[in-house]
Amino acid sequence: MKKKIIFIFISILFFSCKKNEVDMSITPYQLEIPSHFPAMPIPEDNPMSVEGVELGRRLFYDTRLSLDNSISCASCHNQANGFSDPNQFSSGVNGTIGVRQSMSLVNLGWQSAYFWDGRAETLEEQVLHPVRDPIEMNQSWDATAQKLNAIEGYQNDFYRVFEVVDFDSTHISKAIAQFLRTLISSQSKYDVMYKYRNNLPLNAFEQNLYTQITNEEWGGMDLFFSLTNGDCLHCHDGPLMEVQGLFSNNGLDDNFSDIGRMKVTGNTNDQGKFKVPSLRNIEFTAPYMHDGRFSNLDEVINHYSFGIVESPTIDPMIEFAHQGGVQLDAQEHQLIKTFLKTFTDHKFLNNPKFKKPSSH
Asked: Is residue 223 a contact partner of residue 230, using CB atoms and an 8 Å limit?
């Protein structure tokens, strides 16, 4: 105990000296909220800073968060794939395989539940799970913090951002959460179509994108939001293309090997229900569904058209479940597929601010 007190005292003196030598001030991060998006709620105990976001980005790509230093957050959330995993199930340390498809990380600051079963209620809490999960990174947070505390660059960064000498899981998760809140996708054709239909002004980039929208894409949008044909708007609507906090049994099965939301709530009415994901960049986030059973968009559309399976907890908003789905014909199928591709945001998928930075 005495040794630890002496170490902390010496560390405080060390960092106090460094603070006098180096500018340790932080710069508030100005999030660029899209004009057609709602305001993003930021936790009072984790205000965003330029330095905090950059620290979070570095940690997101750091393999030292895993037991054998082999995988990072980015290993299962690839930017080119909309920060999802192109594999059906992700590989953890020592070759362990996960049981659910890695969700796309996009527009997370507006969400109120995380993971397919919603077991985390905040972004900061969500960050804590993969590190200690035995089939993912499989490393205790004490060991993780000890690893990172041994790196002088991280010592300086955490002292600057959080004014702490001996940082722990709370500070690490807060930094990563700051970075994740910057993963905003809002510059797709759909955004232009949404703004145009709602009489919102378009900037120069959006005006140019508007001229590229095809009749088929407009037709697909009309079909998608039709109550009598596509019937997709109950779960996917608005600028974020998802209904916050919604969990749904979308007719994949009538016998559940994965009970989904029920695992968290214990409520049998939640059996087979999973979080409704955003459709942002869906063209690049295959495979689809919580278990990655569909490898392409055609299979997804076919499911909602002909493959709905009824069960006691089937979502009542799936109004055509009794006939297996909305029964799209070939032309309607193609229109829906064309519209789904309007969610692709190339600026997001290639944003250099999200890529791997130089590491410590």
From this structure: yes
